[in-house]
Specification:
The structure holds two protein chains of two kinds.
Chain A (H helix, E strand, L loop, with lengths): L2 H22 L3 H4 L10 E7 L2 E7 L7 E4 L4 E3 L7 E7 L7 H14 L6 E7 L7 H11 L6 E5 L2 H10 L4 E3 L7 E3 L2 E5 L5 E6 L3 H14 L2 H9 L1
Parallel strand pairs in A: 5-6, 6-7
Antiparallel strand pairs in A: 1-2, 3-4, 3-7, 5-10, 8-9, 10-11
Chain B lengths: L1 H23 L6 H14 L18 H4 L4 H7 L5 E3 L2 E3 L11 H12 L11 H10 L7
Antiparallel strand pairs in B: 1-2
Helix pairs in contact in B: 2-5, 4-5, 4-6, 5-6
The chains are: A alpha+beta, B mainly alpha.
């Protein structure tokens, strides 16, 4: 077999593999037994007992502070030791947002009684989406602020934290509603590492997210939660 | 060997193409459904259920019967202000779809009127035209 042949063969095999992975609708990492750490990582060298060891430092969401629908400050401490799902939206969004919110409601309902899981929705239109507007929105969705925080804040801090979550969000007059944004749901673990990004408008991907969340929760507690 | 792999690639390619064209394949008969999916389902959901107290339902909505004469204008020009659907208040604002033709609006309305469990009378294009005539002053040009 010459090189060309091999290349063809490999690409065909890869294609098949990709198709299979796509078909089974689950990430390879999940099959390997754990969610990946997403984002840039750094290798840090340090010395232990005269030996060089390399640590991997995963991308971590930096500290933040926003205001929620109850005018309460929501910070990184609010999500401390919690698994949370976050997204970016605006209340007057003419496109995908209601679909995203209906999928977020599924997560809300699945983990309503589990305090280890939280939802955090950022508005990308803080000028319009004041605390009062977010309050009305959350009320109409009939959700509880302890579980699902809708936050607003400085436009720049919202847009820069979106980048940290690897979600695109920006103003664009050409776009319907005046903003470009992705419908992504980002799954973040107890240490503020990003562990999954899902299309918040696709029920199949949200099925997967619903299965992925429990894998981040401590095993022992999971059984207790089941008993209650 | 080479022939075999080429064949593999070709079949994979054709399969991909087939899947893609299926997605874009358009059929006059279900234009209403396609337009609904494209322009309305994001808010009113694929099954017309709406979203809690934010987006009113289209499935089983009394509004479709009580305000039949306003429906074409609502789609063309949107709606703001408080409305009551099945006894619940909604006040979120719906954008208009000015670029939709009267034929497209007729197809969407007929899809809505005869799906999601709805069994309301269909619209004719003349009826839609008559409704749109009432709100023509809202058109930008």
């Amino acid at each position: 077999m010459n090189k060309n042949n091999l290349r063809l063969y490999l690409s065909a095999a890869l294609l098949g593999l990709a198709a299979f992975a796509w078909q089974s609708c689950s990430s390879p990492a999940e099959q390997a037994g754990g969610l990946p750490y997403l984002g840039e990582r750094q290798l840090v060298q340090r010395e232990v007992d005269g030996q060089q060891v390399t640590d991997t430092v995963y991308h971590r969401i930096p500290d933040f502070a926003f205001i929620n629908q109850d005018s309460q400050v929501v910070t990184s401490l609010t999500v401390q030791d919690k698994v949370y799902v976050t997204d970016f939206f605006f209340t007057t969004c003419p496109t995908i947002c209601p679909k995203m919110k209906s999928q977020m409601l599924r997560i809300y309902e699945a983990f309503e009684d589990d305090p280890r899981v939280m939802l955090l929705s950022h508005t990308i239109d803080p000028k319009h989406d004041t605390v009062a507007v977010l309050r009305d929105y959350a009320d109409r969705l009939q959700v509880n602020s302890d579980k699902w925080q809708f936050v607003t804040g400085e436009k720049d801090s919202i847009y820069s934290i979106a980048l940290q979550y690897m979600v695109s969000a920006m103003e664009d007059e050409e776009e319907p509603g005046g903003f470009v944004h992705s419908g992504a749901f980002v799954l973040v673990d107890q240490n503020r590492h990003v562990r999954g990004i899902y299309d918040g408008t696709d029920p199949v991907q949200i099925d997967r997210l619903l299965r992925d969340i429990p894998t981040l929760l401590p095993k022992k507690k999971k059984k207790d939660a089941g008993k209650n | 060997m080479l022939v075999k792999t080429k064949f593999l690639l070709y079949t994979a390619g054709i399969a991909a193409l087939l899947t893609l064209t299926r997605c874009f394949y358009s059929d006059k008969q279900n234009e209403g459904e396609q337009l609904y999916t494209q322009y309305c389902a994001n808010c009113h959901m694929d099954d017309g259920s709406g979203l809690r107290n934010l987006i009113p339902p289209l499935a089983g909505a009394d509004y479709l019967e009580n305000h039949r004469d306003d429906l074409a204008c609502i789609i063309q020009h949107g709606q703001t202000g408080n409305i009551v659907v099945n006894g619940k208040n909604y006040n979120q604002g719906m954008p208009g779809f000015e670029h939709l033709s009267k034929g497209q609006i007729t197809n969407i309305l007929n899809y809505v009127q005869t799906n999601f469990g709805n069994k309301n009378p269909r619209f004719s294009i003349q009826e839609v035209e008559k409704q749109l005539f009432k709100c023509r002053h809202l058109l930008e040009h």
